[in-house]
Specification:
It is built from seven helices and ten strands. By secondary structure, it is α/β, with parallel strands linked by helices. A hairpin with a 2-residue loop joins strand 4 and strand 5. Helices cover 36% and strands 27% of the residues. The longest helix has 18 residues. The two termini are 19 Å apart. It has a single domain, classed as Rossmann fold. The protein binds adenosine-5'-triphosphate and magnesium ion. The site of magnesium ion has 2 residues, from helix 1. One of its GO terms (cellular component) is plasma membrane.
């Protein structure tokens, strides 16, 4: 069994008197692909945000690559996200004014690579995702599925330990969604990244090594 890269225990997040997340736990091994499923409002996005250090939990623990995410300072959490994590959201959140190549290369630029280095590094990934020929286009000039494949390249180019994907295919039809999810899985495997994928789609969940179900702010594994 591969070593654990991400471990969460009894995580809870409250907004005022309301618990958005009550008691969620998860272990992810290096390179593992985990799907998180559950009804709307069950706490999937909140859990993902807590795992990624985007919200600080009110109870429980999160450890990522040996770092205590809850005890870390804001600056440390930001650095952790930049250096160790990748994200693909429902809409790729690409910057409309930048070309697809520049969008994909953004994490490398933030880590200090020159424009040329960053682009050179991301091109093979765009190639393997079948979108390299679109690198000089703007996001508005390609399809939703193509945008999401660029977002997958962006999430993986800095070789993160874990990629978080919150319904990355939610805005796509099921055929395109399956293409993007398969691309995410194979590219993450090549890059050695673990994936935590939130999805409503049982077909996509079936691609995962493991499925975690959430209900009423709690995780449940079969
Ligand atoms: N910022 C917030 N303030 C108050 N309540 C919130 C906030 N964010 C989420 N919640 C509540 O917490 C619960 C869990 O929300 P969350 O977004 O995690 O659900 P989800 O499983 O991702 O749902 P969906 O499938 O619709 O995306 C919901 O009841 C939601 O209304
Ligand atoms: Mg959600």
């Amino acid at each position: 069994m591969a070593p654990t890269v991400l471990a969460a225990r009894g995580v809870g997040v409250s907004y005022g008197a309301q618990w958005a997340l009550r008691d969620a736990s998860l272990d992810v091994a290096e390179g593992e692909f985990v799907a998180v499923v559950g009804q709307s409002g069950s706490g999937k996005s909140t859990f993902l945000h807590a795992l990624a250090g985007l919200v600080v939990p009110d109870k429980g623990s999160v450890t990522l690559g040996g770092v205590d995410v809850v005890a870390a300072s804001d600056a440390e959490r930001t650095r952790l996200r930049r250096e160790r994590l990748g994200f693909v959201m429902q809409h790729g959140q690409l910057v409309p004014e930048l070309t697809l190549g520049q969008n994909a290369a953004m994490p490398l630029r933030l880590l200090g690579a020159t424009r040329r280095q960053a682009l050179a590094n991301v091109m093979p990934l765009l190639e393997s995702l079948g979108v390299a020929h679109l690198a000089s286009r703007l996001p508005g000039e390609v399809s939703g599925g193509e945008q999401q494949r660029v977002a997958v390249a962006r999430a993986l180019c800095a070789r993160p330990a874990v990629v978080f994907a919150d319904e990355p295919t939610g805005a796509l039809d099921s055929a395109n969604g399956a293409v993007v999810a398969a691309a995410l899985r194979s590219s993450a495997r090549e890059a050695g990244a673990a994936v935590v994928l939130v999805t409503h789609d049982s077909g996509l969940a079936a691609m995962a090594d493991r499925v975690v179900t959430m209900a009423d702010g709690r995780t449940r594994e079969p």
